[in-house]
């Protein structure tokens, strides 16, 4: 839920930054409109306030006062002067900070015929205000052989470089925060029980991850199925480690059980695996190195190993339960539909071990 909140915040923040760009274009549109009106009204004050100190003025690099003087001459020469913006205004940004506004203006002086000129204004932000740093039209530029050189145009993506950096930083923050929070929230403290050489050992306030606790809970469920008369729990091994040092016994199966018969005792081991669901009947029940460890354990101890597989439900109450001999599943990915003979249909019934058939029923 928090991730959604952060994402919404970032979207609104990004939109607000994007609005800044839209506001700039709106401001420049307004400046072009006011520039057009100032020409019609012969308002010298507008040019005094909005021309930069140096300006590209109809093919010439000149000073602000010279451009204004030329405006005064034109206004005095043509008593009737009228112009209007005939097209939409297109803005182009350049790496030197200049913004070019391209448009066509239609001009009529005195009673002469209207003429349309492909025109442009150049703007640059100086001390947080946009000033006109260029004014001309293409016909005049061509007549004077003037070539406007503004350098390279700024690619559209350049406008958003800061946004891309911000996005990367934001995602990194979310990633590391989520990882920290996941580690913090997925770690719990529980009182747990294990068995060593038939003796019960209780651990208090053991730090475990959620997945480790689910594994322990399923082991506890399987232990609860042992018939305490013929079957005795000898080993219930923990998966604890200290300072990243893992005891060799962690590579052994979870449970070691002893069956007492009339004239002998037989031991077998159970490795417990619970999965929330299957992938179309398939599961990866263990990694290859783990399977190799279990096989080596079986050979070294001369003991049969079975794999208790719980599917669905909860670890303490799985919907399906299988007890499959290790020799039948010596590979990591299995199709449970092929192991129907090892499936239990009364999951909560006590289990019995058939030594001759090497089956847990």
Q: Care to give the gist of this entry?
A:
This protein has seven helices and 19 strands. The protein is an alpha+beta fold and 361 residues long.
Query: What's the architecture of the largest domain, going by CATH?
Result: 3-Layer(aba) Sandwich
pLDDT averaged over residues: 85
Rg, Cα atoms, Å: 41 Å
Q: What is the element string, with H for helices and E for strands?
A: HHEEHEEEEEHHEEHEEEEHEEEEEE
Low-confidence stretches: 15-19, 242-246
Structural class: alpha+beta
* Count of distinct strands: 19
Helix content: 25-40%
Distance between the termini: 45 Å
Hey, roughly how much beta strand do the residues contain? Answer: 25-35%
What does this structure look like?
The protein has 361 residues and is an alpha+beta fold. The chain has two domains: 2-154, Nuclear Transport Factor 2, Chain: A (Roll); 189-360, Trna Endonuclease, Chain: A, domain 1, CATH 3.40.1350. Helices cover 33% and strands 34% of the residues. It is built from seven helices and 19 strands. Strand 18 and strand 19 (359-360) form a beta hairpin. Helix 1 (2-41) crosses helix 2 (44-50) and helix 1 packs antiparallel against helix 5. Residues 15-19 and 242-246 have low confidence and may be disordered.
Defining traits:
Trna Endonuclease, Chain: A, domain 1, 6-stranded mixed sheet, 19 strands, 361 residues, alpha+beta
How do the helices and strands line up, and which of them pair or pack?
Layout: H1 2-41, H2 44-50, E1 51-57, E2 60-63, H3 64-77, E3 81-85, E4 90-93, E5 99-109, E6 115-126, E7 129-137, H4 138-143, H5 161-185, E8 187-196, E9 199-209, H6 210-223, E10 231-236, E11 255-260, E12 265-275, E13 282-284, H7 288-301, E14 304-311, E15 320-325, E16 333-335, E17 343-344, E18 353-354, E19 359-360
Parallel strand pairs: 1-7, 12-14
Antiparallel strand pairs: 1-2, 3-5, 4-5, 5-6, 6-7, 8-9, 10-11, 11-12, 13-16, 14-15, 15-17, 18-19
Helix pairs in contact: 1-2, 1-5
């Amino acid at each position: 839920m928090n991730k959604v909140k952060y994402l919404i915040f970032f979207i609104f923040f990004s939109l607000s930054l994007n609005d800044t760009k839209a506001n700039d274009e709106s401001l420049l549109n307004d400046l072009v409109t006011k520039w057009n009106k100032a020409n019609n009204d012969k308002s010298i004050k507008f040019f005094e306030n909005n021309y930069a100190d140096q300006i590209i003025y109809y093919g010439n690099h000149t000073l602000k006062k010279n451009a204004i003087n030329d405006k005064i001459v034109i206004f005095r020469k043509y008593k009737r002067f009228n112009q209007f913006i005939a097209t939409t205004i297109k803005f182009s940004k350049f790496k030197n900070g200049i913004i070019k506004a391209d448009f066509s203006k239609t001009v009529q002086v005195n009673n002469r015929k209207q003429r349309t000129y492909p025109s442009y204004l150049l703007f640059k932000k100086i001390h947080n205000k946009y000033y006109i740093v260029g004014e001309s039209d293409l016909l005049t530029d061509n007549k004077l052989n003037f070539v406007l050189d503004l350098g390279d145009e700024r690619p559209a993506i350049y406008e958003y470089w800061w946004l891309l950096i911000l996005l990367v930083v934001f995602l990194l923050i979310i990633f590391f925060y989520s990882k920290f929070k996941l580690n913090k929230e997925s770690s719990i403290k529980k009182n747990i029980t294990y068995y060593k050489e038939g003796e019960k050992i209780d651990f208090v306030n053991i730090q475990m991850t959620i997945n480790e606790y689910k594994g322990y809970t399923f082991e506890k469920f399987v232990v609860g199925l042992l018939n305490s008369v013929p079957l005795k729990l000898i080993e219930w091994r923990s998966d604890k480690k200290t300072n990243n040092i893992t005891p060799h016994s962690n590579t052994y199966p979870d449970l070691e059980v002893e069956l007492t018969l009339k004239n002998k005792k037989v031991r077998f081991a159970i490795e417990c695996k619970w999965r929330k669901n299957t992938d179309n009947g398939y599961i990866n029940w263990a990694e290859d190195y783990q399977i190799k460890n279990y096989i080596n354990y079986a050979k070294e101890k001369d003991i049969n190993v079975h794999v208790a597989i719980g599917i669905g439900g909860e670890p303490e109450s799985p919907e399906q339960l299988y007890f499959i001999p290790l020799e039948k599943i010596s590979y990591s990915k299995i199709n449970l539909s092929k192991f129907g003979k090892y499936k239990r249909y009364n999951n909560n019934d006590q289990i019995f071990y058939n030594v001759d058939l090497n089956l847990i029923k």
